[in-house]
Task: structure prediction
Amino acid sequence: MSKDAYGVKLVYKYAVHSQVPQELYEEQILKIYAESFDEAYQKADKYVESYIDKYTNINGDIVEISLYKEVDCFKCYND
Result:
C-alpha cells in the first residue's frame, strides 16, 4: 500500500505560570505521509510527545506546553 499525504490539525495550550497567569493557544497543521487516517494520527501522536514541554522563560515564569486537542485529519490532494 502506498503512503498518501495527510494533514493533522492540532491545537496546543501554553500555560504561563506567572503573577498574572496566561493561557495561549497555537494551531499547527502537520503534513504526514501514512497509509491510513489511523496511521496519520499515530504519527502525529509521536510528534506531539516530542513537542510538549515545560520550561522557564527569560522572566523566570514556568511555561507548560500541552496538547489541547487533535482537531482534524484530512487527506491532501495535488492539483
User: Anything to note?
Assistant: The longest strand covers residues 4-17. Helices lie at 37-51. The chain has a mean pLDDT of 93.
